[in-house]
Design goal:
- The protein has 2 domains: about 45-65 and about 75-165, Phosphorylase Kinase, domain 1; about 165-380, Transferase(Phosphotransferase), domain 1 (Orthogonal Bundle).
- Helix 6 (about 175-195) runs antiparallel to helix 7 (about 290-305) and helix 7 (about 290-305) packs antiparallel against helix 8.
- The radius of gyration is 24 Å and the shape is globular.
- The longest helix has 30 residues, at about 1-30.
- A 5-stranded antiparallel beta sheet has the order 1-2-3-5-4. A 3-stranded antiparallel beta sheet has the order 6-8-11. Strands 7-12 form a two-stranded antiparallel ribbon.
- It has about 400 residues and is α+β, with helices and mostly antiparallel strands.
- About 35% of the residues lie in helices and about 15% in strands.
């Protein structure tokens, strides 16, 4: 009985491999050349999206024309430079793609994941998206709109989330904008920890923002400087004019613990930030909550304190968050309490001051300074808050 079952499974696997090979062959024929050598052509890692175009459409999500059956590059047979064409833009990370929700035209992100590799990602993501937690203003976890299980692979699923972009692009204009970002991230990680969840990889790449309100022109999801239709650069407001919300993403290696387990132990997992002191000399299991505090503190240190002027008021708190000894780091409850005290000492004048990059030259600084003062006076006259709270 077992041998017949194995034989049937082997036959099914062989058929799936044949179907995949046939699809790739058809894709090659459509493009008129090898996938990997033709500029702007479909990459091997994109073929899964092509193969599931109609299935996703039936599920309510429309991919860009690049992934539709029989796609012909818009520059083919013309004098256009392929780099100037919208449909030349594939995903920056091949397991993450953009789409449009057909029911309301909302731009979304699709993340392809393996359930066996990240068995808790969907469960933890749906926890934070549950009715009980989704409305909490302290919740800064990326919402999950939908989970689609691939029809031809039981181990893979697609998580549907809002379309987000890196939290530092476009640049911060004022100190108050940065301080509001700190506030949301501190409260957000405190919220995660209060649910007894350790993120375990909350570094810069896993912090993003919903910039929908910020942009006058919808931006292209794979080339965020450009408009979605690729007819020029996307124009935007400042964060002070259009306050926005920041999110923690990627709960692939996150873990949730029982409330009675106050000091859980986990073997080190080397995430995006490889500088965690407790992981340098030993592979002994560690409490992941103090490590989260380090990740966030180190992000602030590298992204702001070391590269920009004017944030010296954050140094004592950040220095404590990144101490070598995890036991000496503050908890997120303590971080939030100390940050609240820091906020009380910041004047409106300080919050409205310009964010100055340490590498700014004289000319760049002068141009940005003139623009900043013009906006600043306007904000004061119109009584726009110095800390742009969404």
């Amino acid at each position: 009985m077992l041998s017949r079952r194995r034989k049937r499974q082997a036959e099914e696997d062989a058929k799936r491999d044949q179907d995949q090979a046939k699809f790739e062959e058809r894709a090659l024929e459509t493009l008129g050349g090898p996938i990997s050598t033709m500029p702007g052509a479909i990459e091997p890692g994109e073929l899964l999206w092509c193969r599931h175009y109609q299935w996703l459409k039936d599920a309510g999500y429309l991919l860009r024309p690049r992934y539709s059956p029989g796609w012909v590059p818009s520059w083919q047979g013309t004098k256009k430079d392929w780099m100037d064409c919208e449909d030349s833009r594939g995903p920056l990370i091949q397991h993450i793609l953009d789409a449009t929700r057909i029911s309301d035209g909302l731009f979304v992100t699709l993340k392809l994941m393996k359930k066996s590799r990240h068995p808790y990602e969907i469960e933890i993501g749906q926890l934070f998206s549950s009715e009980a937690l989704a409305s909490d203003p302290a919740n800064h976890c990326v919402p999950i709109y939908d989970v689609l299980h691939l029809p031809d692979d039981e181990d893979r699923a697609i998580i549907v989330m809002p379309l987000l972009r890196p939290f530092t692009k476009p640049r911060f204009e004022t100190c108050g904008e940065v301080v509001e970002c700190f506030h949301q991230l501190f409260v957000g990680l405190q919220f995660i920890h209060r649910q007894r969840v350790a993120h375990r990889d909350c570094m810069a790449l896993n912090i993003m923002m919903d910039a929908t309100r910020l942009f006058i022109d919808p931006y292209h999801p794979q080339d965020i400087v450009m408009r979605r239709d690729y007819q020029g650069e996307a124009r935007c407001f400042t964060r002070t004019q259009r306050p926005l919300k920041y999110f923690f993403i990627d709960f692939g290696i996150s873990r949730r613990y029982d409330a009675n387990n106050v000091a859980p132990l986990e073997s080190p997992i080397k995430g995006g930030d490889k500088t965690v002191p407790e992981f340098q000399k030993s592979n002994e299991p560690r409490n992941p909550f103090p490590t989260d505090v380090y990740y966030l503190g180190n992000m602030i240190r590298n992204t702001f304190l070391l590269t920009k002027n004017g944030f010296e008021f954050m140094e004592p708190l950040v220095n404590d968050m990144v101490q070598d000894d995890p036991a000496k780091r503050p908890t997120m409850d303590e971080v939030v309490a100390r940050f609240d005290q820091i906020l009380k000492q910041l004047s409106g004048w300080k919050l409205r001051s310009r964010v100055v990059d340490k590498e700014d030259g004289n000319i760049t600084g002068l141009v940005r300074g003139v623009t900043h003062w013009t906006r600043r006076i306007g904000y004061i006259i119109r009584r726009v808050p110095a800390m742009p709270t969404p």
